[in-house]
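User: Predict the full complex structure for these chains.
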Amino acid sequence: MRRMILPLAILAILSVLALLLSVLVGSSSLPLADIQAAIFEDGDALAKTLVLELRLPRSLAAFATGGLLAVAGALMQVLLRNPLADPYVLGISGGAAVGALLAMIGGMGGFIVSGSAFAGALLSTMLVFGLAHGSGSWTPSRLLLTGVVVAAGWGAVITLMLALSPASRLPGMLYWLMGDLSYARTPWYALAILLATCVCVIPLGRSLNVLARGPLQAAALGVAVRPMEWGIYVAASLLTAVAVTTAGSIGFVGLVVPHMLRLMLGNDQRLILPACALAGGILLTLADTLARTVIAPEQLPVGVITALLGVPAFLILLHRSR
Amino acid sequence: MSTSFSLALAGLVGLLPTLAVPSVLAAERCAVDDMDRKVCIEAPAARIATLSPGATELVYAAGAGEKVVAVVSHSDYPPAAKQVQSVGSHTRLDLEALVALKPDLLIGWTTGNPSEQVDKLEALGLTLFFIEPRDFEGVATAIERLALLFGTASEGDAVAAHFREGIAELARRYKDVAPVEVFYQVWDEPLMTVNDEHLIGKVLTLCGGRNVFGGLDRLVPRIDIEAVLASNPEVIIAGGMGEENPQWLTPWGTYEHLKAVKQDNLFFVPPSLIQRPTPRLLEGSQVVCEKLEQARARR
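Assistant: Here is the predicted structure of the two-chain assembly.
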Protein backbone atom coordinates (compact mmCIF):
# COMPACT_ATOMS: atom_id res chain seq x y z
CA MET A 1 0.00 0.00 0.00
CA ARG A 2 2.77 2.41 0.91
CA ARG A 3 4.47 1.57 -2.35
CA MET A 4 1.43 3.04 -4.08
CA ILE A 5 0.81 6.07 -1.94
CA LEU A 6 4.26 7.58 -2.30
CA PRO A 7 4.30 7.89 -6.11
CA LEU A 8 0.71 9.11 -6.16
CA ALA A 9 1.48 11.72 -3.51
CA ILE A 10 4.48 12.93 -5.51
CA LEU A 11 2.39 13.10 -8.68
CA ALA A 12 -0.37 14.96 -6.85
CA ILE A 13 2.10 17.56 -5.60
CA LEU A 14 3.53 17.92 -9.10
CA SER A 15 0.00 18.33 -10.45
CA VAL A 16 -0.68 21.22 -8.12
CA LEU A 17 2.65 22.79 -9.05
CA ALA A 18 1.96 22.39 -12.79
CA LEU A 19 -1.48 23.95 -12.43
CA LEU A 20 -0.05 26.78 -10.36
CA LEU A 21 2.65 27.47 -12.93
CA SER A 22 0.14 27.49 -15.77
CA VAL A 23 -1.98 30.05 -13.95
CA LEU A 24 1.03 32.22 -13.14
CA VAL A 25 2.39 32.61 -16.65
CA GLY A 26 0.70 33.58 -19.87
CA SER A 27 1.11 35.64 -23.00
CA SER A 28 0.81 38.82 -20.95
CA SER A 29 3.10 39.15 -17.99
CA LEU A 30 1.14 39.83 -14.84
CA PRO A 31 2.99 40.67 -11.64
CA LEU A 32 2.68 37.98 -8.97
CA ALA A 33 1.00 40.41 -6.59
CA ASP A 34 -1.77 41.10 -9.12
CA ILE A 35 -2.41 37.38 -9.55
CA GLN A 36 -2.54 36.89 -5.81
CA ALA A 37 -4.95 39.79 -5.51
CA ALA A 38 -7.07 38.44 -8.36
CA ILE A 39 -7.43 35.06 -6.70
CA PHE A 40 -7.83 36.00 -3.05
CA GLU A 41 -9.40 39.45 -3.05
CA ASP A 42 -10.93 42.04 -5.32
CA GLY A 43 -7.92 42.72 -7.48
CA ASP A 44 -7.58 44.54 -10.75
CA ALA A 45 -10.45 43.64 -13.12
CA LEU A 46 -8.11 42.73 -15.98
CA ALA A 47 -5.96 40.47 -13.81
CA LYS A 48 -9.10 38.83 -12.46
CA THR A 49 -10.40 38.12 -15.95
CA LEU A 50 -7.05 36.82 -17.17
CA VAL A 51 -6.47 34.53 -14.24
CA LEU A 52 -9.95 33.36 -13.30
CA GLU A 53 -11.76 33.40 -16.65
CA LEU A 54 -9.00 32.57 -19.11
CA ARG A 55 -6.03 30.83 -17.53
CA LEU A 56 -7.63 28.75 -14.77
CA PRO A 57 -10.40 27.12 -16.87
CA ARG A 58 -7.92 26.43 -19.64
CA SER A 59 -5.36 24.92 -17.27
CA LEU A 60 -8.00 22.70 -15.69
CA ALA A 61 -9.25 21.70 -19.13
CA ALA A 62 -5.69 20.82 -20.15
CA PHE A 63 -5.22 18.80 -16.99
CA ALA A 64 -8.50 16.95 -17.43
CA THR A 65 -7.87 16.25 -21.12
CA GLY A 66 -4.37 14.95 -20.46
CA GLY A 67 -5.65 12.74 -17.66
CA LEU A 68 -8.51 11.38 -19.75
CA LEU A 69 -6.22 10.56 -22.67
CA ALA A 70 -3.62 8.84 -20.50
CA VAL A 71 -6.21 6.72 -18.67
CA ALA A 72 -7.94 5.86 -21.94
CA GLY A 73 -4.57 4.86 -23.42
CA ALA A 74 -3.73 2.66 -20.45
CA LEU A 75 -7.14 0.95 -20.68
CA MET A 76 -6.78 0.39 -24.42
CA GLN A 77 -3.34 -1.15 -23.92
CA VAL A 78 -4.79 -3.57 -21.37
CA LEU A 79 -7.82 -4.34 -23.52
CA LEU A 80 -5.95 -4.93 -26.76
CA ARG A 81 -2.84 -6.36 -25.09
CA ASN A 82 -0.87 -4.31 -27.56
CA PRO A 83 1.76 -1.78 -26.48
CA LEU A 84 1.07 0.35 -29.57
CA ALA A 85 -2.57 0.93 -28.65
CA ASP A 86 -3.52 4.51 -27.89
CA PRO A 87 -6.92 6.14 -27.37
CA TYR A 88 -7.18 6.90 -31.07
CA VAL A 89 -6.22 3.48 -32.40
CA LEU A 90 -9.85 2.41 -32.76
CA GLY A 91 -10.89 5.43 -34.81
CA ILE A 92 -12.58 7.51 -32.14
CA SER A 93 -10.61 10.65 -32.93
CA GLY A 94 -11.30 10.11 -36.63
CA GLY A 95 -15.04 9.98 -36.06
CA ALA A 96 -14.87 13.02 -33.80
CA ALA A 97 -12.78 14.90 -36.34
CA VAL A 98 -15.24 14.19 -39.14
CA GLY A 99 -18.04 15.49 -36.93
CA ALA A 100 -16.13 18.62 -35.93
CA LEU A 101 -14.95 19.41 -39.46
CA LEU A 102 -18.48 18.95 -40.86
CA ALA A 103 -19.71 21.54 -38.37
CA MET A 104 -16.84 23.88 -39.31
CA ILE A 105 -17.55 23.52 -43.03
CA GLY A 106 -21.14 24.40 -42.27
CA GLY A 107 -19.89 27.62 -40.73
CA MET A 108 -20.71 26.58 -37.18
CA GLY A 109 -18.59 27.31 -34.15
CA GLY A 110 -18.38 26.78 -30.45
CA PHE A 111 -20.69 24.28 -28.85
CA ILE A 112 -21.97 22.94 -32.15
CA VAL A 113 -18.45 21.90 -33.17
CA SER A 114 -17.92 20.22 -29.79
CA GLY A 115 -21.31 18.52 -29.89
CA SER A 116 -20.77 17.35 -33.42
CA ALA A 117 -17.35 15.97 -32.46
CA PHE A 118 -18.87 14.07 -29.55
CA ALA A 119 -21.59 12.64 -31.82
CA GLY A 120 -18.91 11.56 -34.31
CA ALA A 121 -16.90 9.87 -31.57
CA LEU A 122 -19.93 7.95 -30.31
CA LEU A 123 -20.92 6.98 -33.85
CA SER A 124 -17.43 5.63 -34.48
CA THR A 125 -17.45 3.73 -31.19
CA MET A 126 -20.78 2.08 -31.99
CA LEU A 127 -19.71 1.33 -35.55
CA VAL A 128 -16.54 -0.44 -34.38
CA PHE A 129 -18.45 -2.19 -31.58
CA GLY A 130 -21.14 -3.42 -33.98
CA LEU A 131 -18.74 -4.54 -36.69
CA ALA A 132 -16.30 -6.25 -34.33
CA HIS A 133 -19.11 -7.92 -32.44
CA GLY A 134 -20.65 -9.26 -35.63
CA SER A 135 -22.12 -12.72 -35.33
CA GLY A 136 -19.08 -14.88 -34.75
CA SER A 137 -16.53 -15.01 -32.00
CA TRP A 138 -14.97 -11.86 -30.70
CA THR A 139 -11.33 -11.27 -29.88
CA PRO A 140 -9.25 -8.20 -29.09
CA SER A 141 -7.36 -8.66 -32.34
CA ARG A 142 -10.64 -8.57 -34.26
CA LEU A 143 -11.58 -5.38 -32.41
CA LEU A 144 -8.17 -3.88 -33.14
CA LEU A 145 -8.34 -4.72 -36.83
CA THR A 146 -11.89 -3.36 -37.14
CA GLY A 147 -10.90 -0.19 -35.32
CA VAL A 148 -7.77 0.37 -37.37
CA VAL A 149 -9.66 -0.06 -40.64
CA VAL A 150 -12.49 2.23 -39.51
CA ALA A 151 -9.84 4.78 -38.46
CA ALA A 152 -8.29 4.56 -41.92
CA GLY A 153 -11.73 5.18 -43.40
CA TRP A 154 -12.22 8.29 -41.25
CA GLY A 155 -8.73 9.42 -42.26
CA ALA A 156 -9.72 9.29 -45.91
CA VAL A 157 -12.92 11.23 -45.21
CA ILE A 158 -10.92 13.88 -43.32
CA THR A 159 -8.45 14.25 -46.20
CA LEU A 160 -11.34 14.56 -48.62
CA MET A 161 -12.99 17.25 -46.49
CA LEU A 162 -9.74 19.20 -46.20
CA ALA A 163 -9.22 18.99 -49.95
CA LEU A 164 -12.70 20.29 -50.72
CA SER A 165 -12.89 23.03 -48.09
CA PRO A 166 -12.44 26.69 -48.92
CA ALA A 167 -8.94 27.90 -48.02
CA SER A 168 -10.27 30.38 -45.48
CA ARG A 169 -11.65 27.58 -43.28
CA LEU A 170 -8.50 25.46 -43.37
CA PRO A 171 -6.55 27.05 -40.47
CA GLY A 172 -9.38 26.41 -38.03
CA MET A 173 -9.74 22.84 -39.22
CA LEU A 174 -6.02 22.09 -39.10
CA TYR A 175 -5.66 23.50 -35.59
CA TRP A 176 -8.55 21.36 -34.45
CA LEU A 177 -6.91 18.28 -35.96
CA MET A 178 -3.60 19.11 -34.25
CA GLY A 179 -5.38 19.50 -30.94
CA ASP A 180 -5.74 22.83 -29.27
CA LEU A 181 -6.86 23.89 -25.83
CA SER A 182 -8.22 27.20 -27.06
CA TYR A 183 -11.31 25.23 -28.09
CA ALA A 184 -11.88 24.22 -24.47
CA ARG A 185 -14.82 26.07 -23.04
CA THR A 186 -15.55 24.59 -19.65
CA PRO A 187 -13.32 22.10 -17.85
CA TRP A 188 -15.93 20.87 -15.39
CA TYR A 189 -17.54 17.96 -17.19
CA ALA A 190 -14.14 16.66 -18.34
CA LEU A 191 -12.82 16.85 -14.77
CA ALA A 192 -15.97 15.21 -13.39
CA ILE A 193 -15.71 12.33 -15.85
CA LEU A 194 -12.01 11.87 -15.10
CA LEU A 195 -12.75 11.69 -11.40
CA ALA A 196 -15.74 9.37 -11.86
CA THR A 197 -13.69 7.01 -14.03
CA CYS A 198 -10.88 6.84 -11.52
CA VAL A 199 -13.35 6.02 -8.76
CA CYS A 200 -15.01 3.30 -10.88
CA VAL A 201 -11.91 1.74 -12.42
CA ILE A 202 -9.48 1.64 -9.52
CA PRO A 203 -11.43 -1.02 -7.59
CA LEU A 204 -11.25 -3.14 -10.75
CA GLY A 205 -7.46 -2.87 -10.77
CA ARG A 206 -6.90 -6.45 -9.64
CA SER A 207 -9.13 -7.86 -12.38
CA LEU A 208 -7.42 -5.62 -14.92
CA ASN A 209 -4.05 -6.91 -13.78
CA VAL A 210 -5.21 -10.45 -14.42
CA LEU A 211 -6.79 -9.55 -17.73
CA ALA A 212 -3.57 -7.95 -18.91
CA ARG A 213 -1.95 -11.39 -18.66
CA GLY A 214 -4.44 -12.90 -21.07
CA PRO A 215 -8.11 -13.84 -21.22
CA LEU A 216 -7.55 -17.52 -20.42
CA GLN A 217 -5.73 -16.90 -17.15
CA ALA A 218 -8.29 -14.23 -16.32
CA ALA A 219 -11.19 -16.59 -16.93
CA ALA A 220 -9.43 -19.30 -14.92
CA LEU A 221 -9.09 -16.86 -12.03
CA GLY A 222 -12.77 -16.06 -12.08
CA VAL A 223 -12.82 -12.80 -14.04
CA ALA A 224 -15.88 -12.33 -16.27
CA VAL A 225 -13.73 -11.64 -19.31
CA ARG A 226 -16.31 -10.63 -21.93
CA PRO A 227 -18.28 -8.07 -19.86
CA MET A 228 -15.00 -6.77 -18.50
CA GLU A 229 -13.58 -6.23 -21.98
CA TRP A 230 -16.67 -4.47 -23.25
CA GLY A 231 -16.74 -2.37 -20.12
CA ILE A 232 -13.15 -1.27 -20.73
CA TYR A 233 -13.93 -0.54 -24.36
CA VAL A 234 -16.95 1.60 -23.51
CA ALA A 235 -15.11 3.41 -20.71
CA ALA A 236 -12.01 4.13 -22.81
CA SER A 237 -14.17 5.30 -25.70
CA LEU A 238 -16.15 7.64 -23.50
CA LEU A 239 -12.99 9.10 -21.98
CA THR A 240 -11.48 9.64 -25.41
CA ALA A 241 -14.68 11.16 -26.76
CA VAL A 242 -14.79 13.67 -23.90
CA ALA A 243 -11.08 14.50 -24.33
CA VAL A 244 -11.39 14.99 -28.10
CA THR A 245 -14.53 17.05 -27.65
CA THR A 246 -12.74 19.31 -25.19
CA ALA A 247 -9.58 20.01 -27.14
CA GLY A 248 -9.46 18.32 -30.53
CA SER A 249 -7.26 15.31 -31.19
CA ILE A 250 -4.12 15.81 -29.13
CA GLY A 251 -1.74 12.99 -29.94
CA PHE A 252 1.00 11.27 -28.01
CA VAL A 253 -0.23 11.69 -24.42
CA GLY A 254 -2.40 8.57 -24.51
CA LEU A 255 0.34 6.40 -26.00
CA VAL A 256 3.37 7.41 -24.02
CA VAL A 257 2.24 8.43 -20.55
CA PRO A 258 1.08 4.88 -19.59
CA HIS A 259 4.33 3.42 -20.90
CA MET A 260 6.44 5.96 -19.04
CA LEU A 261 4.66 5.16 -15.82
CA ARG A 262 4.98 1.41 -16.35
CA LEU A 263 8.70 1.81 -16.84
CA MET A 264 8.97 3.74 -13.60
CA LEU A 265 6.34 2.13 -11.40
CA GLY A 266 5.78 -1.37 -12.76
CA ASN A 267 2.65 -2.73 -14.37
CA ASP A 268 0.12 -2.71 -11.56
CA GLN A 269 -3.12 -1.24 -12.89
CA ARG A 270 -4.22 -0.24 -9.39
CA LEU A 271 -1.32 2.20 -9.37
CA ILE A 272 -0.95 2.89 -13.09
CA LEU A 273 -4.49 4.13 -13.71
CA PRO A 274 -4.62 6.89 -11.07
CA ALA A 275 -1.00 7.72 -11.84
CA CYS A 276 -1.95 8.10 -15.53
CA ALA A 277 -4.74 10.50 -14.62
CA LEU A 278 -2.24 12.70 -12.77
CA ALA A 279 0.78 12.35 -15.04
CA GLY A 280 -1.26 12.84 -18.23
CA GLY A 281 -2.71 15.96 -16.67
CA ILE A 282 0.73 17.25 -15.68
CA LEU A 283 2.19 16.66 -19.15
CA LEU A 284 -0.63 18.39 -20.99
CA THR A 285 -0.83 21.28 -18.52
CA LEU A 286 2.88 21.97 -18.89
CA ALA A 287 2.75 21.52 -22.66
CA ASP A 288 -0.15 23.94 -22.98
CA THR A 289 1.59 26.48 -20.77
CA LEU A 290 4.60 26.32 -23.08
CA ALA A 291 2.41 26.43 -26.19
CA ARG A 292 0.87 29.71 -25.17
CA THR A 293 4.01 31.39 -23.84
CA VAL A 294 7.04 30.33 -25.92
CA ILE A 295 6.47 32.83 -28.72
CA ALA A 296 3.75 34.87 -26.97
CA PRO A 297 1.50 36.55 -27.92
CA GLU A 298 1.55 34.03 -30.75
CA GLN A 299 0.38 30.51 -30.04
CA LEU A 300 1.75 27.09 -30.91
CA PRO A 301 -0.28 23.92 -31.35
CA VAL A 302 -0.06 22.00 -28.08
CA GLY A 303 0.31 18.62 -29.80
CA VAL A 304 3.74 19.63 -31.03
CA ILE A 305 4.85 20.44 -27.51
CA THR A 306 3.51 17.23 -25.95
CA ALA A 307 5.56 15.28 -28.47
CA LEU A 308 8.66 17.46 -28.10
CA LEU A 309 8.53 17.06 -24.31
CA GLY A 310 7.42 13.46 -24.26
CA VAL A 311 9.62 11.86 -26.90
CA PRO A 312 13.00 12.56 -25.26
CA ALA A 313 11.63 11.82 -21.78
CA PHE A 314 10.26 8.50 -22.96
CA LEU A 315 13.39 7.53 -24.90
CA ILE A 316 15.62 8.26 -21.89
CA LEU A 317 13.42 6.11 -19.68
CA LEU A 318 13.35 3.31 -22.21
CA HIS A 319 17.12 3.42 -22.64
CA ARG A 320 17.73 3.34 -18.89
CA SER A 321 15.32 0.49 -18.29
CA ARG A 322 17.48 -2.04 -20.16
CA MET B 1 -24.40 31.49 -93.96
CA SER B 2 -24.51 34.98 -92.59
CA THR B 3 -22.79 33.80 -89.42
CA SER B 4 -19.82 32.32 -91.21
CA PHE B 5 -19.64 35.41 -93.34
CA SER B 6 -19.51 37.72 -90.36
CA LEU B 7 -16.97 35.43 -88.74
CA ALA B 8 -14.79 35.63 -91.81
CA LEU B 9 -15.20 39.38 -91.83
CA ALA B 10 -14.29 39.56 -88.18
CA GLY B 11 -11.22 37.48 -88.94
CA LEU B 12 -10.22 39.83 -91.70
CA VAL B 13 -10.77 42.86 -89.53
CA GLY B 14 -8.72 41.20 -86.87
CA LEU B 15 -5.93 40.71 -89.34
CA LEU B 16 -6.05 44.26 -90.63
CA PRO B 17 -3.82 45.92 -88.03
CA THR B 18 -1.20 43.25 -88.59
CA LEU B 19 -1.34 43.82 -92.31
CA ALA B 20 -1.27 47.55 -91.95
CA VAL B 21 1.69 47.60 -89.58
CA PRO B 22 4.31 45.19 -90.90
CA SER B 23 6.54 45.45 -87.84
CA VAL B 24 4.63 43.22 -85.43
CA LEU B 25 7.26 43.79 -82.79
CA ALA B 26 6.32 47.44 -82.58
CA ALA B 27 2.88 46.40 -81.39
CA GLU B 28 4.30 44.13 -78.71
CA ARG B 29 3.06 44.97 -75.22
CA CYS B 30 5.25 44.35 -72.23
CA ALA B 31 4.70 44.65 -68.50
CA VAL B 32 6.69 43.66 -65.44
CA ASP B 33 4.83 41.27 -63.16
CA ASP B 34 5.05 40.91 -59.38
CA MET B 35 7.84 38.34 -59.76
CA ASP B 36 9.87 41.05 -61.52
CA ARG B 37 9.71 39.28 -64.85
CA LYS B 38 9.13 41.21 -68.03
CA VAL B 39 6.22 39.60 -69.80
CA CYS B 40 5.61 40.49 -73.46
CA ILE B 41 2.73 39.48 -75.68
CA GLU B 42 2.34 40.23 -79.36
CA ALA B 43 -1.34 41.14 -79.39
CA PRO B 44 -3.72 42.16 -76.63
CA ALA B 45 -4.73 39.11 -74.67
CA ALA B 46 -8.04 37.80 -75.93
CA ARG B 47 -8.50 34.65 -73.87
CA ILE B 48 -7.59 35.28 -70.25
CA ALA B 49 -7.45 32.70 -67.46
CA THR B 50 -7.30 33.92 -63.85
CA LEU B 51 -5.69 31.63 -61.29
CA SER B 52 -6.91 33.35 -58.11
CA PRO B 53 -10.19 34.99 -57.06
CA GLY B 54 -8.29 38.26 -56.55
CA ALA B 55 -6.86 38.07 -60.07
CA THR B 56 -10.38 37.57 -61.43
CA GLU B 57 -11.51 40.73 -59.71
CA LEU B 58 -8.51 42.70 -60.97
CA VAL B 59 -9.00 41.56 -64.57
CA TYR B 60 -12.64 42.64 -64.50
CA ALA B 61 -11.58 45.94 -62.94
CA ALA B 62 -9.03 46.42 -65.72
CA GLY B 63 -11.91 46.29 -68.18
CA ALA B 64 -11.29 42.88 -69.71
CA GLY B 65 -14.13 40.95 -68.06
CA GLU B 66 -15.59 39.60 -71.28
CA LYS B 67 -12.23 38.16 -72.31
CA VAL B 68 -12.01 35.90 -69.27
CA VAL B 69 -12.42 32.27 -70.34
CA ALA B 70 -11.38 30.51 -67.12
CA VAL B 71 -11.44 31.33 -63.42
CA VAL B 72 -10.76 29.37 -60.23
CA SER B 73 -13.25 28.52 -57.50
CA HIS B 74 -14.42 31.30 -55.16
CA SER B 75 -14.20 33.83 -58.00
CA ASP B 76 -17.41 35.45 -56.81
CA TYR B 77 -16.86 39.08 -57.74
CA PRO B 78 -18.05 40.71 -59.90
CA PRO B 79 -21.14 38.49 -60.14
CA ALA B 80 -20.53 37.98 -63.86
CA ALA B 81 -17.39 36.02 -62.99
CA LYS B 82 -19.55 33.28 -61.47
CA GLN B 83 -20.76 32.41 -64.99
CA VAL B 84 -17.24 31.74 -66.28
CA GLN B 85 -15.95 28.18 -66.36
CA SER B 86 -13.96 27.25 -63.27
CA VAL B 87 -10.74 25.25 -63.63
CA GLY B 88 -10.42 24.03 -60.05
CA SER B 89 -9.11 25.81 -57.00
CA HIS B 90 -6.07 28.05 -56.97
CA THR B 91 -4.13 25.39 -55.06
CA ARG B 92 -5.13 22.54 -57.37
CA LEU B 93 -5.66 23.60 -60.93
CA ASP B 94 -7.32 21.31 -63.42
CA LEU B 95 -4.54 21.68 -65.99
CA GLU B 96 -6.39 19.69 -68.62
CA ALA B 97 -9.49 21.88 -68.50
CA LEU B 98 -7.33 24.98 -68.37
CA VAL B 99 -5.25 24.07 -71.42
CA ALA B 100 -8.33 22.95 -73.36
CA LEU B 101 -9.76 26.47 -73.02
CA LYS B 102 -6.71 27.73 -74.99
CA PRO B 103 -6.01 30.81 -72.90
CA ASP B 104 -3.40 33.18 -74.33
CA LEU B 105 -2.61 34.84 -70.99
CA LEU B 106 -2.76 33.40 -67.49
CA ILE B 107 -2.91 35.67 -64.46
CA GLY B 108 -1.17 33.77 -61.67
CA TRP B 109 -0.77 34.24 -57.93
CA THR B 110 2.89 34.21 -56.82
CA THR B 111 2.46 32.48 -53.47
CA GLY B 112 -0.96 30.93 -54.05
CA ASN B 113 -0.47 28.68 -57.07
CA PRO B 114 1.57 25.48 -56.69
CA SER B 115 4.93 25.95 -58.39
CA GLU B 116 4.87 22.48 -60.00
CA GLN B 117 1.67 23.34 -61.84
CA VAL B 118 2.99 26.75 -62.80
CA ASP B 119 6.17 25.17 -64.20
CA LYS B 120 4.08 22.71 -66.16
CA LEU B 121 1.98 25.48 -67.66
CA GLU B 122 5.08 27.40 -68.69
CA ALA B 123 6.62 24.23 -70.15
CA LEU B 124 3.47 23.92 -72.26
CA GLY B 125 4.29 27.32 -73.73
CA LEU B 126 1.58 29.31 -71.96
CA THR B 127 2.28 32.89 -70.86
CA LEU B 128 1.88 33.66 -67.17
CA PHE B 129 1.69 37.06 -65.56
CA PHE B 130 1.94 36.99 -61.76
CA ILE B 131 0.04 39.44 -59.58
CA GLU B 132 0.26 39.78 -55.83
CA PRO B 133 -0.23 43.38 -54.65
CA ARG B 134 1.22 44.01 -51.21
CA ASP B 135 0.18 47.63 -50.83
CA PHE B 136 -2.26 50.18 -52.21
CA GLU B 137 0.07 51.26 -55.01
CA GLY B 138 0.51 47.61 -55.95
CA VAL B 139 -3.23 47.32 -56.54
CA ALA B 140 -3.29 50.43 -58.74
CA THR B 141 -0.31 49.42 -60.85
CA ALA B 142 -1.61 45.86 -61.14
CA ILE B 143 -4.75 47.19 -62.80
CA GLU B 144 -2.69 49.43 -65.10
CA ARG B 145 -0.25 46.67 -66.06
CA LEU B 146 -3.08 44.23 -66.73
CA ALA B 147 -5.02 46.80 -68.75
CA LEU B 148 -1.93 47.37 -70.88
CA LEU B 149 -1.65 43.67 -71.67
CA PHE B 150 -5.37 43.45 -72.40
CA GLY B 151 -5.47 46.52 -74.62
CA THR B 152 -7.99 48.18 -72.30
CA ALA B 153 -5.68 50.87 -70.98
CA SER B 154 -8.22 53.68 -71.10
CA GLU B 155 -10.65 51.80 -68.88
CA GLY B 156 -8.02 50.29 -66.57
CA ASP B 157 -6.12 53.53 -66.09
CA ALA B 158 -9.32 55.29 -65.07
CA VAL B 159 -10.11 52.62 -62.47
CA ALA B 160 -6.54 52.74 -61.16
CA ALA B 161 -6.60 56.53 -60.99
CA HIS B 162 -9.91 56.50 -59.13
CA PHE B 163 -8.51 53.98 -56.65
CA ARG B 164 -5.30 55.96 -56.17
CA GLU B 165 -7.17 59.21 -55.64
CA GLY B 166 -9.57 57.60 -53.19
CA ILE B 167 -6.74 56.20 -51.10
CA ALA B 168 -4.81 59.49 -51.28
CA GLU B 169 -7.92 61.32 -50.13
CA LEU B 170 -8.24 59.02 -47.10
CA ALA B 171 -4.54 59.42 -46.37
CA ARG B 172 -4.92 63.22 -46.43
CA ARG B 173 -8.03 63.21 -44.28
CA TYR B 174 -6.63 60.90 -41.60
CA LYS B 175 -3.01 62.02 -41.63
CA ASP B 176 -3.10 63.98 -38.39
CA VAL B 177 -6.06 62.49 -36.54
CA ALA B 178 -5.74 61.14 -33.03
CA PRO B 179 -4.51 57.54 -33.21
CA VAL B 180 -6.90 54.74 -32.26
CA GLU B 181 -5.66 51.41 -30.94
CA VAL B 182 -7.24 48.67 -33.01
CA PHE B 183 -7.42 44.90 -32.89
CA TYR B 184 -8.40 43.31 -36.20
CA GLN B 185 -9.78 39.78 -35.93
CA VAL B 186 -9.28 37.77 -39.11
CA TRP B 187 -10.55 34.52 -37.63
CA ASP B 188 -12.08 33.41 -34.35
CA GLU B 189 -11.06 29.78 -33.81
CA PRO B 190 -8.13 29.88 -33.70
CA LEU B 191 -7.97 33.58 -32.94
CA MET B 192 -5.92 35.26 -35.67
CA THR B 193 -4.95 38.82 -36.50
CA VAL B 194 -2.69 40.64 -38.99
CA ASN B 195 0.54 42.59 -38.61
CA ASP B 196 1.43 45.97 -40.12
CA GLU B 197 2.85 44.39 -43.28
CA HIS B 198 -0.51 42.89 -44.16
CA LEU B 199 -2.73 44.88 -46.50
CA ILE B 200 -5.40 45.04 -43.78
CA GLY B 201 -2.77 46.36 -41.37
CA LYS B 202 -2.02 49.05 -43.93
CA VAL B 203 -5.70 49.96 -44.10
CA LEU B 204 -5.72 50.40 -40.31
CA THR B 205 -2.66 52.65 -40.49
CA LEU B 206 -4.18 54.63 -43.37
CA CYS B 207 -7.24 55.40 -41.24
CA GLY B 208 -5.19 56.63 -38.30
CA GLY B 209 -5.45 53.34 -36.44
CA ARG B 210 -2.64 51.69 -34.51
CA ASN B 211 -2.71 47.93 -34.87
CA VAL B 212 -2.01 46.53 -31.39
CA PHE B 213 -0.36 43.46 -32.96
CA GLY B 214 1.26 45.38 -35.82
CA GLY B 215 4.78 44.62 -34.66
CA LEU B 216 4.54 40.82 -34.73
CA ASP B 217 6.74 38.97 -37.22
CA ARG B 218 4.17 36.78 -38.91
CA LEU B 219 1.81 38.26 -41.49
CA VAL B 220 -1.20 36.50 -39.95
CA PRO B 221 -0.21 35.66 -36.36
CA ARG B 222 -2.23 33.34 -34.19
CA ILE B 223 -2.77 34.85 -30.75
CA ASP B 224 -4.85 34.23 -27.62
CA ILE B 225 -7.63 36.15 -25.91
CA GLU B 226 -5.31 37.00 -23.06
CA ALA B 227 -3.03 38.99 -25.37
CA VAL B 228 -6.01 40.97 -26.69
CA LEU B 229 -7.26 41.76 -23.19
CA ALA B 230 -3.78 42.79 -22.07
CA SER B 231 -3.33 45.13 -25.05
CA ASN B 232 -6.76 46.64 -24.28
CA PRO B 233 -7.62 48.01 -27.75
CA GLU B 234 -10.06 50.87 -28.15
CA VAL B 235 -11.63 49.27 -31.20
CA ILE B 236 -12.18 45.67 -32.26
CA ILE B 237 -12.90 45.01 -35.91
CA ALA B 238 -13.91 41.53 -36.99
CA GLY B 239 -14.13 40.00 -40.41
CA GLY B 240 -16.12 36.80 -40.77
CA MET B 241 -16.92 33.96 -43.06
CA GLY B 242 -18.45 35.37 -46.21
CA GLU B 243 -20.60 38.40 -45.63
CA GLU B 244 -22.17 37.29 -42.39
CA ASN B 245 -20.43 37.65 -39.09
CA PRO B 246 -21.08 34.51 -37.09
CA GLN B 247 -21.30 36.21 -33.73
CA TRP B 248 -17.56 36.75 -33.55
CA LEU B 249 -18.04 40.05 -31.81
CA THR B 250 -20.48 38.84 -29.16
CA PRO B 251 -17.94 37.04 -26.93
CA TRP B 252 -15.90 40.23 -26.58
CA GLY B 253 -18.91 41.87 -24.95
CA THR B 254 -18.39 39.73 -21.85
CA TYR B 255 -15.12 41.52 -21.05
CA GLU B 256 -16.68 44.65 -19.66
CA HIS B 257 -13.49 46.41 -18.64
CA LEU B 258 -12.16 46.22 -22.20
CA LYS B 259 -11.95 49.74 -23.62
CA ALA B 260 -13.56 48.67 -26.90
CA VAL B 261 -16.52 47.21 -25.01
CA LYS B 262 -16.93 50.14 -22.65
CA GLN B 263 -17.06 52.57 -25.57
CA ASP B 264 -19.18 50.25 -27.70
CA ASN B 265 -16.54 50.01 -30.42
CA LEU B 266 -17.07 46.46 -31.69
CA PHE B 267 -17.34 46.71 -35.46
CA PHE B 268 -17.93 44.32 -38.33
CA VAL B 269 -16.39 45.07 -41.71
CA PRO B 270 -17.37 42.74 -44.58
CA PRO B 271 -14.20 40.72 -45.20
CA SER B 272 -14.67 40.69 -48.97
CA LEU B 273 -14.08 44.45 -48.95
CA ILE B 274 -10.67 44.37 -47.32
CA GLN B 275 -9.30 40.85 -47.50
CA ARG B 276 -8.56 40.92 -51.23
CA PRO B 277 -6.09 43.26 -52.92
CA THR B 278 -8.58 44.66 -55.42
CA PRO B 279 -10.28 48.00 -56.13
CA ARG B 280 -12.94 47.11 -53.56
CA LEU B 281 -10.21 47.71 -51.00
CA LEU B 282 -10.97 51.42 -51.38
CA GLU B 283 -14.56 50.86 -50.32
CA GLY B 284 -13.35 48.67 -47.45
CA SER B 285 -10.86 51.31 -46.35
CA GLN B 286 -13.61 53.94 -46.36
CA VAL B 287 -15.74 51.69 -44.12
CA VAL B 288 -12.83 51.08 -41.72
CA CYS B 289 -11.99 54.79 -41.59
CA GLU B 290 -15.62 55.63 -40.81
CA LYS B 291 -15.67 53.10 -37.98
CA LEU B 292 -12.49 54.51 -36.47
CA GLU B 293 -13.95 58.01 -36.82
CA GLN B 294 -17.05 56.81 -34.93
CA ALA B 295 -14.77 55.49 -32.21
CA ARG B 296 -13.06 58.88 -31.93
CA ALA B 297 -16.45 60.56 -31.61
CA ARG B 298 -17.35 58.23 -28.71
CA ARG B 299 -14.38 59.25 -26.60
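The first strand of chain B starts at residue 29 and ends at 32.
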